[in-house]
């Protein structure tokens, strides 16, 4: 497969993952906002609850989270594929390991949805802790990813 791609295509493939992940970082912050709003709606009383429920934050949070899950998994696989295509190997280091850990954590977090829908607090708290960890790692990944992109650009 390496010989089927021109050097220009192989070079530009390096940027698909970083752009996607920066977009996903922003979307993840939006998902956090939706999750907080849904929690406020669930715990509110009276008129405040009625008003917050109109926002349908639970549906939006679930939908946005599903998109994040799919794109994060595809982005992680795609990044490893592009790295292998361009270098013939993967570079096992903190960026790759944190990304793989995040991919596993987001799958576990999403798998808690049926339990949260049934009102299981342990699932909600686990979901929150996993996603807070993912968001912290995601922020660090953004910085270390920019450093990797800078190395790719200066290597050319």
Any overview of this molecule?
There is one protein chain. The chain is mostly helical and 156 residues long. It contains seven helices and no strands. It has helices spanning 7-13, 16-43, 46-53, 57-87, 94-111, 113-117, 121-155. The radius of gyration is 19 Å and the shape is elongated. The model has no long low-confidence stretch (mean pLDDT 94).
Lay out the secondary structure:
Blueprint: H1 7-13, H2 16-43, H3 46-53, H4 57-87, H5 94-111, H6 113-117, H7 121-155
In short:
With 156 residues, the protein is mainly alpha-helical. Helices cover 85% and strands 0% of the residues.
Radius of gyration: 19 Å
Helix count, DSSP H or I runs of 4 or more residues: 7
Question: Which range best describes the helical content: under 10%, 10-25%, 25-40%, 40-55%, 55-70% or over 70%?
Answer: over 70%
- Total number of beta strands: 0
Low-confidence stretches: none
Give the structural class.
mainly alpha
Roughly how many Å apart are the termini? 21 Å
Q: How can the largest sheet be summarized? A: none
Order of helices and strands: HHHHHHH
Report the mean per-residue pLDDT as an integer: 94
Indicate the proportion of strand residues: under 5%
Shape: elongated
């Amino acid at each position: 497969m390496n010989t089927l791609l021109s050097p220009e295509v192989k070079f530009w493939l390096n940027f698909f993952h970083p752009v996607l992940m920066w977009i996903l970082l922003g979307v993840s912050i939006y998902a956090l906002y939706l999750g907080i709003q849904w929690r406020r709606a669930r715990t509110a009383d009276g008129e405040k609850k009625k008003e917050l429920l109109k926002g349908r934050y639970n549906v939006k949070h679930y939908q946005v989270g599903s998109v994040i899950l799919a794109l994060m998994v595809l982005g992680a696989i795609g990044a490893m594929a592009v790295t292998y295509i361009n270098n013939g190997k993967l570079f096992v280091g903190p960026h790759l390991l944190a990304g793989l850990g995040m991919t596993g954590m987001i799958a576990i977090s999403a798998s808690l949805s049926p339990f949260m829908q049934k009102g299981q607090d342990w699932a909600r708290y686990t979901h929150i802790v996993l996603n807070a960890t993912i968001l912290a790692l995601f922020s660090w990944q953004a910085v270390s990813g920019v450093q990797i992109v800078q190395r790719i650009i200066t290597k050319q």
